[in-house]
Amino acid sequence: MPDRIAAHYERHAHAFDEARRKNFVEKAWLDRFLLGVPKGGHVLDLGCGAGEPIARYLIDKGRELTGVDASEAMITLARTRFGRHRWIRGDMRHVVIDGHFHGVVAWDSVFHLRSEEQAEIVVKVAHWLAPGGAFLFNTGPARGEVIGCQFGEGLYYASLAPAEYRALFAEYGLLEVAFAPRDATAGGRAVWLARKPQ
Questions:
Q1: How far apart (Å, rounded) are the C-alpha atoms in residues 133 and 18?
Q2: What sequence ranges are listed for the domain Methyltransferase (predicted)?
Q3: pLDDT tens track of the chain, all 198 residues?
Q4: What is the chain's percent helix, strand, coil content, to nearest 5?
Q5: CA–CA gap between residue 28 and residue 24 (Å, rounded)
Q6: How far apart, in whole angstroms, are the C-alpha atoms of residue 146 and residue 155?
Q7: Hey, how many other C-beta atoms are within 10 angstroms of the C-beta on 102?
Q8: What is the DSSP string of 125-146?
Q9: Which domain does 18 fall in, by range?
């Protein structure tokens, strides 16, 4: 099922983009994230979609963006809107990116991967982050798999247990800053904010 995610968002790119631009529940978390990302700092957005509203907010706050998304339609929209930033059509599980980032965001994206693939993303992010860099992402509140519904189609979600994410942080040198298992202000999402020590 995770391998069908890109096709799902490709089919519904414009409908998703229209809905997403009206739904900016993550602002407070992005503000916390930006406390660890200097002005002019470089942010990697995994599952960036069409760049609204997250990339726009980060760009407006003076950060440089590299966005990765598996949907060509989404990346095309992002490139059209924010042409001076870097947009890569690719699968976050396999994309090769050089350099380090002051922050990595994976809002509403990593949780579409299988739990073992999510663990691999945490490891990649730990290597991509510069010292002091921040990592903001969503999971489920507990280990499991569910099929949700979006635009009348099934959509796969999965999660490790919180203790498993914490074990990955400990092994790969990330520090937990905050975890909200069901944040009502963010639409009930489970939200993590972690940081790489200086």
A1: 31
A2: 43-133
A3: 446 777 767 776 666 667 676 778 999 999 999 999 999 999 999 999 999 999 999 999 999 999 999 999 999 999 999 999 999 999 999 999 988 999 999 999 999 999 999 999 999 999 999 999 999 999 999 999 988 877 777 888 899 999 999 999 999 999 999 999 999 999 999 999 999 999
A4: 35, 30, 30
A5: 10
A6: 8
A7: 23
A8: HHHHEEEEEEEEEEE-SSSEEE
A9: 2-195
- The CATH number assigned to the domain holding 95 equals 3.40.50.150
pTM above 0.85, yes or no: yes
Q: CB count, 10 Å around CB of 53?
A: 20
Phi first, then psi, for residue 89 (nearest 5°) are: -80, 115
CA 96 to chain centre: 16
What span, in angstroms and rounded, lies between the C-alpha atoms of 148 and 150? 7
Distance of CA 166 to the CA centre of its chain: 18
Strand, coil or helix: what is 110?
A: helix
Number of domains in the chain: 1
Q: Which residues pair with 15 in a beta bridge?
A: none
* DSSP H or E segment with residue 183: strand 175-183
Residue 172: strand, helix, or coil: helix
